[in-house]
């Protein structure tokens, strides 16, 4: 068992964020008689999973609903639908980011070619 500060250090997540996860029932510590939070070793992996799901754009509510599915293989048709929609949103964002990166690659390549030939990008005045 570890205290909240150790969990924060091991996961690189602030104590404030861990308390937020607790408030939203994403993370449930054991409590000592004096009220101190104690977390099992498995909390490290759970916090990393929560961070990944937040980074993917999922809300606290969706993550809360999703965790039993991920951890205990329990899913509902509604949750599956929500997750599919979220995946489709992520796919669209990835496509847009890839297009933007490809455009920047072309601009960089053209700018480098112009510098090699002595032509300045943007008018060269």
What does this 3D model show about the protein?
Keywords: DNA-binding. InterPro entries: DNA-bd_dom_put_sf, MerR-type_HTH_dom, MerR_fam. The protein is mostly helical and 125 residues long. The protein has two domains: 1-73, Multidrug-efflux Transporter Regulator, Chain: A, Domain 2; 75-125. The protein is built from five helices and three strands; from the N terminus they run βααββααα. Strands 1-3-2 form a three-stranded antiparallel sheet. Strand 2 and strand 3 form a beta hairpin. The radius of gyration is 23 Å and the shape is elongated.
Tell me the layout of helices and strands.
Blueprint: E1 2-3, H1 4-11, H2 15-23, E2 30-31, E3 37-39, H3 42-55, H4 60-72, H5 77-117
Antiparallel strand pairs: 1-3, 2-3
Protein name: MerR family transcriptional regulator
Organism: Streptomyces odorifer
Domain HTH merR-type: 1-69
Whole-number mean pLDDT = 88
Strand count, sense and barrel status of the largest sheet are: 3 strands, antiparallel
Radius of gyration, in angstroms, nearest whole number: 23 Å
Number of helices: 5
Q: What would CATH call the class of the largest domain?
A: Mainly Alpha
Number of strands: 3
Categorize the overall geometry. elongated
Count of all domains: 2
Element pattern in H and E: EHHEEHHH
Protein name: MerR family transcriptional regulator
Domain HTH merR-type: 1-69
Organism: Streptomyces odorifer
Pfam families: MerR_1
What descriptors fit this protein?
5 helices, 3 strands, 2 domains, 125 residues, mainly alpha, three-stranded antiparallel beta sheet
């Amino acid at each position: 068992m570890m205290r909240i500060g150790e969990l924060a250090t091991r996961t690189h997540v602030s104590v404030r964020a861990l308390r937020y996860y607790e408030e939203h029932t994403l993370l449930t510590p054991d409590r000592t008689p004096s009220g101190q939070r104690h977390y099992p070793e498995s909390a490290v992996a759970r916090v990393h999973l929560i961070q990944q799901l937040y980074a993917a754009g999922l809300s606290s509510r969706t993550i809360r609903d999703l965790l039993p599915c991920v951890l205990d293989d329990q899913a509902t048709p509604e949750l599956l639908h929500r997750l599919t929609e979220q995946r489709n949103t992520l796919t669209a964002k990835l496509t847009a980011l890839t297009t933007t990166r490809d455009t920047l690659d072309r601009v960089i390549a053209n700018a480098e070619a112009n510098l090699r030939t002595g032509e300045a990008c943007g008018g060269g005045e």
